[in-house]
Design a protein that fits this description.
The chain has 203 residues and is of the alpha+beta class. The chain has seven helices and seven strands, in the order H-H-E-E-E-E-H-E-H-E-H-E-H-H. The chain has helices at residues 21-34, 46-57, 118-129, 135-150, 164-167, 186-189, 191-201; strands spanning 72-73, 83-94, 100-110, 115-116, 132-133, 154-163, 178-185. The strands form two sheets. The chain has a five-stranded mixed β-sheet, sandwiched between helices. A two-stranded antiparallel ribbon has the order 1-4. The chain binds guanosine-5'-triphosphate (GTP) and zinc ion.
Amino acid sequence: MSPTPDDGDLFEAPAKLPVPDDVQEAVRTLIRWAGDDPDREGLLETPKRVARAWKEYAVGYGEDPAVHLSRTFHEVGGYDEIVLLRDIPFQSHCEHHLAPIIGKAAIAYLPSDKVVGISKLARVLHGYARRLQVQERLTAQVADCIWEHLEPKAVAVVIEASHSCMTARGVNTPGVMMTTSRMMGIFRSDERSRREVLALMGY
Ligand SMILES: Nc1nc2c(ncn2[C@@H]2O[C@H](COP(=O)(O)OP(=O)(O)OP(=O)(O)O)[C@@H](O)[C@H]2O)c(=O)[nH]1
Ligand SMILES: [Zn+2]
């Protein structure tokens, strides 16, 4: 049976975050700077929308990604090999142009004592991605967080992303991808382990 308006909350719009006047004015200034008129009808609600959208793009500032690694498991049937989550899509924004960074990450670790629910690795990634970033820092933050809180034998993070500041402006080079990686523990010190994790990631 399809829902009807009598189902109550289902049809209620979510409460909208209030947007301070100075934030709206900043967006209006930017619209004027871009060459348009912030008072034309189609743009009247845009400052509020943009401000609220930015709260979503930057939602990571409101969280400590390490909290996602606090629930760990110790009993995994004696499993002591690499755990890998690959092709994790993410979105971020570059701190230089506030332009979208769209990419995918592969996150691997070699557990010592603690393992974590795999969704939590993606949550750590999003917690750091949903901020103003450079790709190098994002890569390092994800790896460091896992290294510190899971105390594994090794961590590997590889991120591939397209930077809109390069594809849609500036050097205008669509299709170009940036790759960054951070290896810790024996993925860094042992050539064979490093090759193994990169092969599992598809590199
Ligand atoms: N290393 C690194 N550079 C980035 C990242 N995101 C954007 N950039 C680069 O940051 C640089 C900023 O350079 P600037 O010369 O200050 O800015 P710009 O004049 O807008 O540079 P162009 O993009 O070349 O037009 C550019 O080369 C961008 O491509 C990132 O995640 N890591
Ligand atoms: Zn940029």
